[in-house]
Design goal:
Blueprint lengths: L2 H7 L7 H16 L4 E2 H10 L7 H10 L3 E5 L2 E4 L1 H16 L13 H4 L4 H15 L3 H22 L16 H8 L11 H16 L7 H21 L5
Antiparallel strand pairs: 1-3, 2-3
Helix pairs in contact: 2-3, 2-5, 7-8, 8-10, 8-11, 9-10, 10-11
């Protein structure tokens, strides 16, 4: 994980100086497999990310008294095994779990849309993560995918999924699903075909237009419509009551 994301997740700005040293030393230990750290290196890292230590002598006194550190040599320390285990329990996943997606409601409010199905949660977090990190083509493709999944789940919830399947029993292309959905009296969708086509097309352009690149404004222009449409589909799919 990038250190900027790490300091955000561990809420570094709210920690005292000793805890800041411990968190940065732990980050370096986990990322670079370094069992010890030089205090000067950690202090330099903190200064570089906007958390300068005002009094180094005082900090050294804190380190000597703390049960979380052991002095190796002049200026060199290690985090004690017990303290490291506690840090692993609290923050270890941030650094070793490759499945973690760092996101925070950039396109969709995760408190509203996550927690229903694990595979949807991962896609929604990818939507937000891609938007936050300027990957707008990837964001648009994920938006389209979530939209298509929720449409299919809605059909399945109403037990009318055969209406959007071909002769082989496979689901039709999204264009045909949308055409059926907006006119389907059983689903009774409130949004217009124009809204649904807008969502479908932004993903199609990102995935299939060779000379096209999705821009932030393209996502911003459809964000509100997307959220409203998706929330209705969550109800239609039985994901929200």
């Amino acid at each position: 994980m990038d250190i900027k994301l790490y300091i955000e997740k561990v809420n570094l700005s709210q920690q005292n100086e000793l805890t800041k040293v411990k968190l940065i030393a732990f980050y370096d230990n986990m990322r670079n497999n370094k069992p010890t750290f030089m205090l000067t290196d950690v202090v330099s890292t903190l200064a570089a990310i906007g958390h300068s230590i005002s009094n180094i002598s005082r900090l050294k006194g804190y380190l000597v008294k703390s049960k979380d550190f052991r002095r190796i040599s002049d200026g060199e320390y290690t985090i004690t095994p017990l303290a490291k285990e506690k840090l692993k329990e609290e923050y270890g996943e941030l650094l070793v779990n490759e499945d973690i997606i760092i996101s925070d409601n950039e396109v969709l409010d995760e408190t509203l849309f996550c927690g229903k199905k694990n595979y949807l949660d991962k896609l929604i977090m990818q939507i937000n993560h891609c938007y936050k990190n300027y990957c707008y083509d990837a964001c648009a493709v994920c938006m389209r995918r979530v939209f298509e999944i929720c449409l299919i789940l809605a059909y399945e919830n109403y037990c009318i999924q055969d209406e959007i399947k071909n002769n082989n029993g496979d689901y039709a292309m999204l264009e045909k699903i949308v055409a059926n959905a907006v006119n389907n009296s059983t689903l009774n969708i409130s949004r217009s075909k124009k809204d649904y086509d807008l969502i479908r097309e932004i993903g199609n352009y990102a995935a299939h237009k060779i000379l096209y690149n999705t821009r932030k404004k393209d996502i911003d222009d459809v964000k509100q419509t997307y959220r409203v449409c998706l929330e209705e589909l969550y109800y239609k799919a039985g994901l929200k009551k």
